Amino acid sequence: MENRRSYGKKADQALSLWVKLARAYETVRHRSVEDIRTYGLTQSQFGVLEALGHLGTLTPGELSKKQLSSCGTITVVLDNLETEGLVLRKRSGSDRRVTYVSLTAKGRKLFDNSFHRHAAFIGGVIGVLTDAEQHDLGRLLRKLGRTQEESFSTNQPNNQRRKETE
Known about the structure:
The protein is mostly helical. Helix content is 70%, strand content 6%. It has a single domain (9-128), classed as Arc Repressor Mutant, subunit A, CATH 1.10.10.10.
């Protein structure tokens, strides 16, 4: 017998959707990480190679924003990729505070050999949805994400709102 507490129809529906979204994300992420490991990389390392492979030379700060990771995390990831000979860090000639990160020939080869296969793998995972379902889901997730980003940047932080209601 289920003992579920109700928070109102809209809140219950939103919570149910949140749980489904979180579970789907974790399942797909787990499958993706398993595939990425076959290339001898972590998810963060693969993400950095992907960004550099598609966008070209970037600064660590730009990589941090692209990967939604802290600068400290990106530094550790870059240290490990540099040790493996996959990326090269080079100081700017005009501003010593700026460092640029690019793929080495070895890093480019790994990116070229792995990304196409990983994209096909993800296509298979997501392929349980029809093309129309993928389009609709993508549109809805983009709408949800963008409205929350806008709301977050224009409103008070959540912890401030909580304090006011206590």
